[in-house]
Amino acid sequence: MGNCMGSAAAVQVVSQPSTALPSPARGPSSRAPSSCGSVYGRSVGSRASAEEAYPDGRILEVPNLRIFTFSELRAATQKFKVDYVLGEGGFGRVYKGWVDETTLNPSKSGVGMIVAVKKLNPESMQGLQEWRSEVNFLGRLSHPNLVKLLGYCWEDKELLLVYEFMSKGSLENHLFRRGAGFQPLSWSLRLRIAIGAARGLAFLHTSEKQVIYRDFKASNILLDSNFNAKLSDFGLAKNGPTGNDTHVTTRVMGTYGYAAPEYVATGHLYIKSDVYGFGVVLLEMLTGLRALDTNRPSGQHNLVDWAKPVLADRRKLARLMDPRLEGQYPSRGALQAAQLTLKCLATDPKSRPSMKEVVAALEEIESRKSRPAEPRDLSLCRGARSHGSAHVHHRSPYTPRHDGSRSAGRVSHRSPML
């Protein structure tokens, strides 16, 4: 993976004026001083109130994280019980746990606040580097549309991260999975989710030290109980260019189908490389189809390549829209969203809008109270639906399972695109 720690401007993860990362504790008996429990406990409330005081987000002067011991997280997850697995990815498994809402001390199952505990697989190739990136960025970034990192544990070879629990799971699940637990998202909900995710990206891009997210995709957009969208998984995040530089050069990492073409071709990563990824997700939200799906007919495997010529054609757009919407969307709003998607997917990064402009455009679409169009003839929808609907998708980390099974869903972990 790319080196997220290489920049001198990198956010540091210490509460003292130091440039070192936290050192691992030695042995299961090691723990933070007892006074830290109450200090970090109060900080949880302060982060929640900070979102109200700073609705546009802020970068904290010092990290605001609880340092957990391994034994605490073992207790919170009932000894990492298999039944508590929420998902699994390249980093490792993610477990549901329970902690006290005030102190974050472990509590009994069903008592207190639910959290998501990500536990590193010792054999993971992503491992320590992504753990550091998560702590470095999410430890200081505070915004309503970024998942909260509550704390971490580094004890001997054990690396764990503790996040707020997002009860509605990932956008990917709601767009592509079928079943009683996943009802079709309405047009208004899709817009709301898109706006929330866009605001999160805009905050990263316009903060004092610009951050390039680098892995924007539907599985990394998590939803709370009110369908508020939050960006998760900062393992590939990079500090943006400084001075007169227009980009940073790095090893190409990310997810096929979402990475910007200039980044894949050259390794040059621009702030607006994230905008391309947003355009891909917006296209998925309009169509209900995955960015890449080899189960679709030949010529339609890559959604962007296939759909771009249709997006600007008002007459053909109806055929492209997700049939699960059942025609219940304003035709003008859909066309505006399609045009915005096209701009985000521009080949030249300079031609793409900024995320601040994307937010404004989406808010304008949402503000229009147009009546939904009459249900369209769903027989016009492309034959690709029958081919793509059976595709089984991989569950994103730290999102809840809804099928009641005991086995953990897996996600295919990201790989270098070289």
From TrEMBL:
Residues 16-40, 366-418 are annotated as: Disordered. It holds the Pfam family PK_Tyr_Ser-Thr. Residues 366-379 have a biased composition (Basic and acidic residues). One of its GO terms (cellular component) is plasma membrane. It is an enzyme of class 2 (transferase). Keywords: ATP-binding, Cell membrane, Kinase, Membrane, Nucleotide-binding, Serine/threonine-protein kinase, Transferase. Belongs to the protein kinase superfamily. Ser/Thr protein kinase family. This is non-specific serine/threonine protein kinase. The lineage of its organism: Eukaryota, Viridiplantae, Streptophyta, Embryophyta, Tracheophyta. The gene is LOC109713687.
